[in-house]
Amino acid sequence: MPARMYFLGALLAFLVPAVAGAWPVDLVLPLEAGKDRFQKLAALEWVEVEDASVASAEALPGSNELLLTGHKEGQTLLLLYAEGRFAVWRLVVGAPPSDDLSPRMASARKVCPDLKATQGAEKLLSVTVKDPACRAALLEVLRSDAYVARELELTFEVPALQEQLAAMSAALKPLGLEARYSGAGLVMTGSASREDWRKALWELFRRSVGRVPLEDRVEVKAPEAPAAVPDAGPAVEAEPPVPVEIIRGTPKKPRKKG
């Protein structure tokens, strides 16, 4: 019995979604180099930019507002987190590079026989992800900007789902975390530092085809307190410096007695 996972979410441009982001991104956002852009969200706790030399992002405290700044032409990814949910946007500074999707789409059709893709005003990509070969081909297609997450309708069969879980587990294990499926959702457990926890969210995004409904049960460790400075004992008053007479000039040579 195939595990069916259909994802046709609403546009998530201004709301961190209820499901975790994955390939493709949730939103493609254009920026201009040297200019700021403010984005209002329903909720926002923190953000992280993959390449801060291309663009930077700052969560403005107390406002649920995001300040985005383009720095140089290029593309980078932005991870947003709020209330146990995360999304990933692609930030494009300047003109986006041309991307010919035809070769990748042709390869995907060979291993995903029921793949259907439409362009235009009503873009939609629907497919049954039946095995690892189909999943790998779709990852290449979805890394482009041709589709965003809301424009996918995916059905996973068990072999592809198992292979995807294995890929996620391999990435999470070095971080001290585990993943398992509960129905069609992914449960992530374990204890990790804040840095490793953020790495884990990136890994889930990069290794997933379509959105993954995530139940995040990770215990984020508090940062360790700095080591206490040992007590040096009572202060000892220093002795006053001894005056030293400095003799200037060249010393005279002793006379020879004749």
From TrEMBL:
Disordered: annotated span: 225-258
Bias (Low complexity) ranges: 225-239
Protein name according to UniProt: Pilus formation protein N-terminal domain-containing protein
Annotated source species: Myxococcus stipitatus (strain DSM 14675 / JCM 12634 / Mx s8)
